[in-house]
Design brief:
Mean pLDDT: 93
Order of helices and strands: EEEEEEHHEEEEHHEEH
Radius of gyration: 20 Å
Shape: globular
Low-confidence stretches: none
Distance between the termini: 44 Å
Strand order of the largest sheet: 10-1-2-11-12
Number of helices: 5
Oligomer: single chain
């Protein structure tokens, strides 16, 4: 399974992903789900992927090949155009692999989150579905998730605000969201990739990979649990009706 989240604020972007691809009784596999495409000073793209590992790897391989050849993402005029480039490659892989997958009762399942900025354009955030169509984030819905979303969503709903959340706080929310998912679902796990992009930088200089025993990752887990317990204890007591057993 997978959990990835992209957050867009007025100041920039925060992208985070786990690295677990499957978790069985006797096998846990790890694979990077964050990929970057950068021409310093001109354009920055960050892609997060979930779903079928073989299909998502094919999509990334095709995008990388075109980018290195100076086409595709290397020439997209806007983030919307870039999302369409990604969607085209999703459709291309679908046309190649979907018939064989569905013949053996496997679904073609690839979801991606694309974020970044092109010089002269605003920074932006998109989700691309398995059909290749893009969905743009908005100021009212300034984050997007793929994979195992439900455990990490509540903290984002309560905390993330496009115009008020700093990049530093958005990074903390992303880490807490991932920690909550890891705590509740064994199929999501470290290493954790975290990238913070400040708008108009047009380069990547704030990235970190957290191993399972990273002291900062452990501190997030421990301090967040302690803070939750304290918050519960500080809530007003629950009041009950004194009407006996009858409601």
């Amino acid at each position: 399974m997978t959990y990835c989240v992209g957050i867009k604020t007025r100041e920039g972007l925060v992208m985070a992903s786990d690295s677990r691809t499957n978790a069985g009784y006797d096998q846990v596999n790890v694979c990077r789900k964050m990929h970057t495409f950068v021409i310093p000073g001109e354009r920055v793209f960050i892609l997060l992927v979930s779903g079928s590992l073989s299909c998502s790897q094919s999509v990334i391989t095709l995008l990388r090949r075109d980018f290195d050849a100076g086409i595709g993402l290397a020439t997209a005029g806007s983030l919307y155009d870039a999302a369409r480039v990604v969607g085209d490659q999703v459709r291309r892989v679908s046309a190649i692999d979907r018939p064989a997958l569905e013949q053996d009762d496997y679904k073609f399942n690839v979801h991606l989150i694309l974020a970044g900025q092109i010089k002269g354009e605003d920074h932006d955030l998109y989700m691309i579905y398995p059909q290749g169509n893009p969905l743009q984030s908005t100021e009212d819905s300034p984050y997007l998730q793929i994979g195992e979303c439900k455990y990490g969503r509540p903290i984002l709903d309560r905390g993330i605000r496009y115009d008020r959340t700093s990049l530093e706080d958005a990074a903390r929310y992303a880490m807490i969201s991932l920690d909550s998912t890891i705590r509740s679902n064994v199929t999501v796990g470290p290493p954790i990739d975290l990238l913070v992009y400040r708008k108009d930088d047009l380069r990547i200089d704030r990235y970190r990979r957290f191993a399972s025993k990273d002291p900062d990752l452990l501190a997030v887990h421990e301090q967040w649990e302690q803070a939750l317990r304290r918050a519960v204890q500080e809530l007003p007591p629950v009041r009950f009706d004194a009407r006996g057993e009858e409601a």
